[in-house]
Amino acid sequence: MTTAVAPTGAAPPATRSGRNEPKRKGIRSPYPSWFYIPAAVLFIVFFAVPTFASFYFSLTRWTLFDVQFIGFDNFVQFFQEPQLVQGFINTFIYGFVTSAAKVVLGLALALLLTGPILGRGYLRAVVFFPVLVSTIGVGLTFKALLDPFHGVVNNILGFFNLPEPGWYTDPSLALLTVAGVDIWKGVGIATLIFMAGIVAIPHEYFEAARMDGAGAWSIFRNITLPLVRPATATVIILSLIGGLREFAMIWAMTKGGPGFSSDVIASVIYKQYQAGFFGLSTAGNVILFLVVTAVMVPVSWFLNRREAEL
Amino acid sequence: MTVTERITTADARKLRGGRRPKEDRRPMTVRRWIRKYLVGIIAIIVSVVVFILPFVFVFLQSSKTSQEAGLVEFSLPTEWLFWDNLVEVLQKNDYQVLWAFLWTTIITVFSCAIMVVFAAMVGYVLQRKRSRWNPVINFMVLAALIVPPAVVPTIWVLQGVGLFKTIPGMILIEATFGLAFCVLLFRAFVATIPKELDEAAIIDGAGPMRLFFAVVLPLLKPVIVTVIVVQAVFVFSDFQNPLYFLPGNDYPTVQLGLYNFQSQTVSQFNLLFMYILLTTIPPLIMYIFFNRQIVAGMTSGAVKG
Fold it and tell me: Is the minimum CB–CB distance between A115 and chain B shorter than 8 Å?
């Protein structure tokens, strides 16, 4: 703007450009930068320093008393011991399963709960409430409900002569059982975000589509689904971050067991820490950091790119 | 950012209002009647089974004798011992449960207070002032949301400053890990406050401190309530951080206490479920009174990522 005026030369800076000038000495900005300082101190001391330190400590054999530099041995060990590799793979399974289920179920519930339905307020409250309950409480409750021998769920299944799986005692099922309970607890927040996305779609679109004779499926496919994309992106990103980092639910229900069948990186970190292998534990932390970044950067890039195209 | 704006502001409000007026104008056909009532009734039944019965189970378990609770059946207790169990669980291990609630409350209150003030200051300046630091700060906020905290090095830092296994250390840790999310909420909300207001206050002679604490901060009240409620629920339910940074029996916290309770008292399922029931009460109270703020906070959690 001001450059266009510049050729007239003599004119002193216009009043408008006066505001954009670099700060003059003597006039203090009403928005002082030191407002950042208290938060920055906390952030640096308790987050940035440990994060950077973790890169160093992950290359050491670290006990309570001494630190010994051993290069990449911890990482090598991490990918050689079968149980640690298992934890690495399980992290992805857990993250993707919970995330996908929350997207599908959350969207379905949100469609149901934004439409005309009996007891809508009640249903919304009930679906959402488990989000607020503590993970440990939920985990322990379901541990009792899913007890393979005399748990309520298996009693019911037995009553109908259905197979009674070992839920969290069966190594092939344990991880998915924990993921299922996680979904039960977390689907409410996905539903909530999808509901916000759906009610944000201008109602005229649905009316116009209906005028043109579109059925329920084609309205969903061609209007709702593309237009709730921001909400979908949010749900995927949130639940992936949560799922890849999940610790409490797994620890409350199985402690990574039976064996190492439901271990994830976060539980491996805790186990190694408990055993006193601080270096290995920190290496786990660095790996978790890399996993989360390696998953989140492309995913959020992809989701945002598609959003921009619309 | 687009996600945030689209979801938080107008839409969250619409969501709270609940009704879509246009919807009701269409005549009630048989199909729509079926959809509304039949599907509704099925949904209610399913929701009772899936979402209500686990809580009923917790309640029933907590009212039984220890032998009966050990059977983990879904049945009415033959003898209602709700109060006895409540008293017993509170007295267990020298009132450890009561202490746990006390310490957790203290941690929650102080960490939320720190988060509100510090994050509001950052969110406000970040939104108002253009500087070359903004991209850096935005990046760090996102990083803090995504990056899992490095556990053992954090303990190492806490030991270095002498705050490991102390309540102040726990408060600062919870505050730090919650800051990023709060900053995003505050930044989004400050954007809705007209800048002219700041200018008027400056012309009237308010300094930066007065401008923020006397003019802007009071206007942030809605988002402050949201931040407090959402973070209070998070901090209260947190298990992982107390497990790492506040171990031992000196300062029991609720979730850690619950977890340890489970491993110590295998034969007393009634008391365990009473404890679980107790931990669901604070979130329930929060939900009943601050439903709207929680919804606003969670949907603008849309910002995350």
Answer: yes
